Amino acid sequence: MAKADTREPGEADVPIVRLSNVWVWLGDTLALRDVSLDIHENRFIGLMGPNGGGKTTLLKTIVGLIKPDRGEVVLRSPVGKTVGYVPQERTIDPDFPATAYDVVEMGLYGSLGAFPRTTDEHRAQVMEALDRVGMRKSAAKGIGALSGGEKQRVSIARAIVGTPSLLLLDEPTTGVDADARDDFFRTLQDLRRSLSLTVILASHDIEVVPSQVDEVICINQRVFVHAAPDEIEDVGDFRSAYGCELEFIAHGKHPHRIIERHDEAAGEEGNGDV
Amino acid sequence: MFEDMLSFPFFQRALMGGVLVAVTLSLLSFFVVLRRISFIGVGISHSALAGVALGLVLGINTTLSATAFCGLIALLIGYITRRGNVREDVAIGITFSGTMATGVILIALSGKYMSNLYSYLFGSILTITNGDIALMAVYCIATIALVGLFFKHLLLISFDENIARVSGIHVDFLHYLLLVLIAIVTVASIKLVGIILVSALLVLPAATSRQLARTYRPMLLLSVAAGLISLFTGLVLSYTFDLPSGATIVLCACALFFICFALSPRRLRKPAKGG
User: Fold this and answer.
1) Which of B152, B155, B215 lies nearest to residue A99, judging by beta carbons?
2) Structural domain B2-257, CATH architecture
3) What pLDDT, in 10s, does the model give residues A187-223?
4) Lowest mean pLDDT among A78-92, B16-30, B38-52
5) C-alpha distance from B204 to closest chain A C-alpha (Å)
6) Architecture of domain A12-77+165-267
7) What are the boundaries of each domain within chain B?
8) CB within 8 Å of A229: residues ≥ 6 apart
């Protein structure tokens, strides 16, 4: 499934995603204000911010589900062939009559032309994708019978089965316990390495995400922080974005500094779909 | 008794047309149930009355006028529910009552006594002609072919439209195509089950099969089986007890749904899970 590097000389300098002065209104609500970002190849980006701060909107704008009212989004390659998108787990209908295998196979339909027909080769691709996320044994299980974490793994398998170069994940660890979350990040790091993926992961989990990613982007309508976790000297901009008290805490489990919230909102599990 | 029934040409025509319509409606009902657009089906099917009435007023073929009108209403409902800032149930409620009212007014304005209005509304196998069978064949085979060609894409947009869009699939085209196909098969089914009752057969076969099937392939096959069982049982009972064919077929489909609901492994498993 690993892809050959077919880039032209100098292509590595071209960002895989470039947002230039992007403004998005959702009805009367301003969701993104003058957002400019360059996302470079093979980077793992943690997209953070408070609930309703525009994380989901930013991901949807990158994949073309939302058209910016102003500004532009440029992807190095067309979305359908190069982008794997994993929406929030709660958007999966547990009553849909499909197995994990069926869901992953759907990830191939867009690349199979107008009247898609699947072959043995496609079936092997689907099983390989399920294998990569540790769900091979659950291929025949109905999606309604899977736990939240398993559903997310199946969604990731669906997103990577078409061998994308960019993977976008929206709140993939919401509602899963700490062990499942750690497993999830291990799987994701393995996928990044083996498939040379650029990953943008939206999460409100500010305690864990900075310790996992190459770059942190913190947004609340506009970009407050865009830096490598180790380059963040103080949490002033985070504090402005979140509108609450934050501080660096040294945790034994992770080598990086961890940011913790110190207000009653810290325990909220909500994930506003904005 | 079955040989007696089959000896009547009208019953042969009803059976032939019925099989075509039942298979096609069952196929569409699979997507109607998965996409949760059963109320859209009601809105489209009820607009057929205005289409038929328009044909009467203009003095043109009522099937053609109903096809054109239903197709346009299907596109209008599709547009309003996707692009408008009114809720889907409100949009369909308005369209549905508006087109029914238009149909009644047009019939009144035509000044013609519409002796077969009842059969348009509730179906009558006695009125099915060889021409109707030919029309059903053209409409149903075209619909089955299009659904077959686009089946996987329709399945994906039923699973998640956003994922389908990101995959590069033309979601809006497929949504409108499905609505127009519902309109076409509605018109093809008028003589058999009628305008009022056809929407039931756009829901019941797949709702029934969903009770028994865990995944989409058996669900699709069982949906077609449920449609055919309802048709055969309904036609036989209709003939035997001299009952209106459309209503009898729909009642058989309802009975089959409740039997499958009672025996549903999915439903019976749920309490054990909760406990």
Assistant:
1) B215
2) Orthogonal Bundle (1.10)
3) 999 999 999 999 999 988 777 788 889 999 999 999 9
4) A78-92
5) 16
6) 3-Layer(aba) Sandwich (3.40)
7) 2-257
8) A46, A210, A211, A213, A215, A216, A256, A257
